Amino acid sequence: MIVRQRPGALALMYVVRGTILPVVLPHLAVLLLFALLVQLFHDMAWLQVPEFSPAPFTLLGVALSIFLGFRNNAAYERWWEGRKQWGHMVDEIRSLARTSESLLAGHADQRRWLLALCAGYFHALRGRLRNEDVREDLARWLGDDVAAAALSHGNVSDYCLREAGRHIG
User: Fold this and answer.
1) Which among 65, 168, 52 is positioned nearest to 118, based on CA atoms?
2) CA distance to 19, 48, 52, per residue, from 8 (Å)
3) Which of 62, 63, 95, 156 could bridge 124 with an S-S bond, Cβ 3.0-4.6 Å?
4) pLDDT tens digits, 53-85
């Protein structure tokens, strides 16, 4: 399990990794530049901008906050469901490890290979979900030749599961 230090509230305000800020920042910069130009032209009397009541903006802000609240809850539910599924997989693999200890008591090499395939599955799935390269992790658990065979397939995690199934069969 990956355990990270919990950042404080001030540090959370400046976290960029994992947010949409790098995607939105250029659009915000263009919008800020446009607003500054309109304000500059209005101050120099080159452009007359009519006065608006703040009521429509208030109503729009309330509607937008409700919409963002629902969207935030849906995103959190998806994250929590993924976390529950990952935890369930960890529990099942631990159960398999305990069961294999009793059923394959005299065959330590077969048990070790089965659990190495399961570890390879987890690393391959983690890499697929996070769009990371897991070649080194696969090579460490499965060996260079089996890792190369797994990486040649379209779905590396599925390859590891199929190999574990063949090994159990």
Assistant:
1) 168
2) 17, 46, 40
3) 156
4) 888 889 999 999 999 999 999 999 999 999 999
Query: Which residue, 73, 143, 80, 77, is CA-closest to 113?
Result: 143
Q: Does pTM surpass 0.90? A: no
Please report the DSSP string for 7-76 in residue order.
P-HHHHHT--TTSSHHHHHHHHHHHHHHHHHHHHHHHTTSS-PPP--SHHHHHHHHHHHHHHHHHHHHHH
Torsion sign over Cα 126, 131, 134, 138: positive
d(CA 90, CA 77): 20
How far apart (Å, rounded) are the C-alpha atoms in residues 68 and 74?
10
